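Same chain as my last thread, 615 residues:
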Amino acid sequence: MGRRSRCRRLQQQQRPEGAEDGAEGGGKRGEVGWEGGYLEIVKENKLFQHYYQELKIVPEGEWDQEPLPATLRITGYKSHAKEILHCLKNKYFKELEDLEVDGQKVEVPQPLSWYPEELAWHTNLSLKILRKSPQLEKFHQFLVSETESGNISRQEAISMIPPLLLNVQSHHKILAMCAAPGSKTTQLIEMLHADMNVPFPEGFVIANDVDNKCCYLLVHQAKRLSSPCIMVVNHEASSIPRLQIDVGGRKEILFYDRILCDVPCSGDGTMRKNIDVWKKWITLNSLQLHGLQLRILAEGGRMVYSTCSLNPIEDEAVIAPLLEKSEGALELADVSNELPGLKWMPGITQWKVMTKDGQWFTDWDAVPHSRHTQIRPTMFPLKDPEKLRAMHLERCLRILPHHQNTGGFFVAVLVKKSSMPWNKRQPKLQGKSAETRGSTQVSPADPTEGKPTDPSKLESMSVTRTGDTEIAHATEDLENNGNRKNGVCRLPPSKKMKLFGFKEDRFVFIPEGDPLFPPIEKFYALDPSFSRMNLLTRTTEGKKRQLYMVSKELRNVINTGIKVWCRNKKKKKKLSPKHKHIPGCHEIEARKVNTTQPPPTLFDTMHAYRNQVGQ
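reply #2:
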């Protein structure tokens, strides 16, 4: 018998009489016992109430507590959305009239007054009542089946507001920076497909989240809609790299028409459904997230910034520094008339900062040096009244839980009026020959580290043309110190890249002459206009079990490069070039081959290839 088994047997012998397996102290849970269930959590936090009462964000006498109602949204772009709405209103909702469950009268679902075409409804029915009540069994089964098929989505009411304020059109390129769990992302996809006469919209949604597991949840949510206009990315939102697309044979930076920035927050606006807010809320939560929120929002473009927090440290204190740094390039849009029926409060212009021990500060100069690690200057309102007035912070939307029986929320719509000042200050990395064939673009990202390069380091870089080749070099002398500065003149260090998620098979576009597709095309009688070039698979060898499809525009984003060399099993041939002339291709990944000669350096390989392309 092992040591663990002996210890377990000794513990069983010493257990008091009447004790059951898995219970401590005789199997009782306090005074209520096992049959009494858990003690009811008291929704009270004196520090929370003191903080918001002192800031006067929630008026006196408006602190009554009620549970959050359940809400559902009908998928708007589906052709049979109106049929589902008719079925709900005339069949299932009528059955709820005069219905009581456990002595509680069931409230008939009501439409959200500010959501278009009555496609969003809310009710006091909880999931527990839906599952246990025999009278609601058919209604529950209907909701489950339609949710799985993508016709209905369970989504909190306030979560529907940011996508509506983006005013999405079918041709827009959209970036959702913190997209998980995906309810807003699916709403954006619906808006792209609003016009049923356009089967494949020109726009698309790039949904990003830093959590790998949340990205799987994003995929699960998005695949219910069967849209080819969605791409899920797993990356840190505060340092999303610039993507490139092919425009007329030239690589250009992908700019987004709309950006949804639903950033991580303390979540104190979810106090009606999140019990942890009452138990664990402290001001330190907001102070720690302020810097992250400011880094995430510092991106150019038109965007909606939203949080489920009522704290001005996470709301107006994030918007104000960005507007100040933009130097007039960004401004807050007035969206007060875009959602008729929505009740809200204007943004505030004055607030105070409180530490975790309840000490208040109204100005950065009054903060002691010992507090500088927790409290930052950007957390306070601007001192200049003219600048503060020009920002129009009152255009922000503050939605309190008691306004329309929702959760707490903050929304700010930013419109880009001109180029960002930090983009204007960036040095030009291309010479006059950039417009000629075979020009080389120097990316502001280090390809070996996967992190953006410091802009100060880019100032020493230039691009010159020698004969038919272009060589990116640094002005510093690298021969003396041997340190690699720009990732071009030296091979990258031999260290393994850190894996942030699961290692999976990559997506590969099927070739044009693949024999797999003709039988499928014949069996399903597909239209000849159907583009097989937009199909992907997860394997290049063996049987292909599943095919995936993306839109033409997303293919342009994904297919940023093609395979130039491949492994050759024959020893006589060293390299097998797939294509000789590839306009715009400036990055080559050489694979190892079976040869007795040492492989060429990356710099020599790029130099030889550019000579070949230039010819």
